[in-house]
């Protein structure tokens, strides 16, 4: 791609991926500016927030690349558009994925709007994904593609993007493998070449999750009961701290089940009674209550101007780390759809996103009910 004469602003996080994205675009002839987003302020001075060090790393990278850097504070937008929804979902007993909303509301909305205001033609990030433009009935449409590196593909987290956002987006790492990205950074003399990948909540970082939630949502202890026989097994400190399929952290591991054949098997979270404040658990990884062949989704977003066809065979990810699963769209309406899988899926979790694909093309998806 020849970027001669085009201005692109690269969202830079302090990691190797966004650094190499900026490097590659500069090599392709784009006029590149780096932009560092500060999106969290509540406890920015504690051990879990790496904003200060990340900014130092970005400044160093921009200096090596010879590009300008702008620092922007989107903390209010993040709190209003992402974190408030994050807390509402947990309070309702669901398990949200804030990274997905962060991409659509901050990185490709607040950041995109800001970049356009600065006269940018495009924005770019270090996501492992791709964009393809093609002509359909006389107009240009855009597809979101999986990355070549299947172990790093991040199209799942980008499924809420729309045609306009994709028309303005560049993903320079879509055809590269992570090892290649680190090698490119090392050859270019970028000190972040071996920097550890960040994990944890988008922009909030790696911190003890339960302690973090307790700062914002009141604890509400309740009973833990066996789903099969309603036996009282223990007490939970709040339904928000638990998710479907969870095994660790229940403090009931030594309690035997009634079924002699499986009395020593581990306990798993199988459901939540929000009205009664009861956490339901079952024993055994393969318990029928932990698998589903169908699920309903809401808050749909289809990337193409038209929805996928019903009864067509696609694949879907009911969670990020799950391999693509054969499925079909059984029914679809304006605000909800039903998806059927070829085989039972384990620990389907309300609040998480299911994302559908046709080969390498990400079609979109929705929130699991």
Characterize the structure shown:
- The chain is α/β, with parallel strands linked by helices and 369 residues long.
- It has three domains: 7-209, HUPs (Rossmann fold, 3-Layer(aba) Sandwich), CATH 3.40.50.620; 218-285, SH3 type barrels; 291-368, Translation factors (Elongation Factor Tu (Ef-tu), domain 3).
- The chain contains seven helices and 17 strands.
- The protein has a six-stranded antiparallel barrel.
- α1 runs parallel beside α2 (51-65), α1 packs across α6 (178-187) and α3 (75-91) runs antiparallel to α4.
- It is globular, with a radius of gyration of 22 Å.
- It starts with 6 loop residues before the first strand and ends with a strand.
What descriptive keywords fit this protein?
369 residues, alpha/beta, Rossmann fold, SH3 type barrels, Elongation Factor Tu (Ef-tu), domain 3, 3 domains, 5-stranded parallel beta sheet
């Amino acid at each position: 791609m020849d970027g001669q004469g085009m201005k692109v602003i690269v969202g830079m996080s302090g990691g190797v991926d966004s650094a190499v994205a900026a490097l590659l675009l500069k090599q392709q002839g784009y006029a590149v500016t780096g932009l560092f987003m500060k999106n969290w302020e509540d406890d920015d001075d504690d051990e879990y927030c790496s904003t200060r060090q990340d900014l130092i790393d970005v400044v160093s990278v921009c200096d090596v690349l010879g590009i300008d850097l702008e620092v922007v504070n989107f903390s209010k937008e993040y709190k209003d558009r992402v974190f408030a929804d994050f807390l509402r979902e947990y309070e309702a007993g669901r398990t949200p994925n804030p990274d997905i909303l962060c991409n659509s509301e901050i990185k490709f909305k607040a950041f995109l709007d800001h970049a356009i205001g600065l006269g940018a033609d495009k924005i770019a990030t270090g996501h492992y994904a791709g964009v393809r433009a093609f002509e359909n009935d006389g107009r240009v449409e855009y597809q979101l593609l999986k990355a070549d590196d299947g172990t790093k593909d991040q199209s799942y987290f980008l499924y809420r993007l729309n045609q306009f956002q994709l028309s303005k987006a560049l993903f320079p790492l879509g055809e590269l493998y992570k090892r290649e990205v680190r090698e490119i950074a090392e050859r270019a003399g970028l000190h972040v070449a071996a920097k550890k990948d960040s994990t944890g909540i988008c922009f909030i970082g790696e911190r003890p999750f339960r302690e973090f939630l307790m700062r914002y949502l009141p604890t509400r202890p309740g009973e833990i009961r066996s789903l099969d026989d309603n036996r009282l097994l223990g007490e939970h400190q709040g339904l928000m701290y638990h998710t479907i399929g969870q095994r660790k952290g229940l403090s009931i591991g030594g309690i035997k089940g009634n079924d002699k054949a499986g009395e020593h098997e581990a306990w798993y979270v199988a459901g939540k009674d929000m009205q009664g404040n009861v956490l339901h658990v079952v024993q055994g990884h393969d318990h029928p209550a932990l698998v589903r062949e169908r699920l309903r989704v809401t808050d749909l977003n289809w990337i193409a101007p038209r929805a996928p066809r019903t009864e067509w065979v696609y694949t879907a990810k009911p969670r990020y780390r799950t391999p693509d699963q054969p499925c079909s769209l059984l029914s679809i309406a304006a605000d909800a759809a039903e998806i059927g899988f070829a085989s039972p899926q384990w620990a389907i979790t309300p609040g998480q996103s299911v994302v559908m694909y046709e080969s390498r093309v990400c079609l979109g998806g929705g929130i699991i009910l």
